[in-house]
Amino acid sequence: MKIDIEKQQDVTLMTPVTRRLDASVALRFKEEVLAVIQQGEVRLVLDFSRVDFIDSSCLGALISLLKATSGKGTLVLCSLNGNIKNMFSLTRMDRVFTLYPERSDAIAALTLGG
Fold first, then answer.
1. pTM of the prediction?
2. What are phi and psi of 44, to 5 degrees?
3. Spatial separation of the C-alpha atoms in residues 32 and 86, rounded to whole Å
4. Residues 25-34: contacts with CB within 8 Å, 24+ apart?
5. Cα–Cα distance, 57 to 60 (Å, whole number)
6. Helix, strand or coil for residue 94?
7. pLDDT per position in the chain (114 positions), as tens?
């Protein structure tokens, strides 16, 4: 699985380059993001602009990643399509994760003190 990684100011942007984040890639996705967290990156934006679908295994991976940043940094999500937003709403994960409509909103929030 490919994840584009870039830095803007002190924010690390990670964009999964796949249409589906499901059980077949969830573990690799989690391991790749966790490796970045373990390298000391404390302000992370996961950009879902290229992702059309996530399943419960990916949601579980995201929860693990959020726990990994707890007390050490900030993990936010951006650019979720309507279906993914609905899943977050139905599972109430929109209350657990900080979601931004666009990448620029997420970067601005973290740069200003996230």
1. 0.94
2. -120, 135
3. 26
4. 25/1, 25/58, 26/55, 26/57, 26/58, 26/60, 26/61, 27/61, 28/1, 29/1, 29/3, 29/58, 29/61, 30/61, 30/64, 30/65, 32/1, 32/3, 33/3, 33/61, 33/65, 34/64, 34/65, 34/68
5. 5
6. helix
7. 899 999 998 999 999 999 999 999 999 999 999 999 999 998 999 999 999 999 999 999 999 999 999 888 999 999 999 999 999 999 999 999 999 999 999 999 998 754
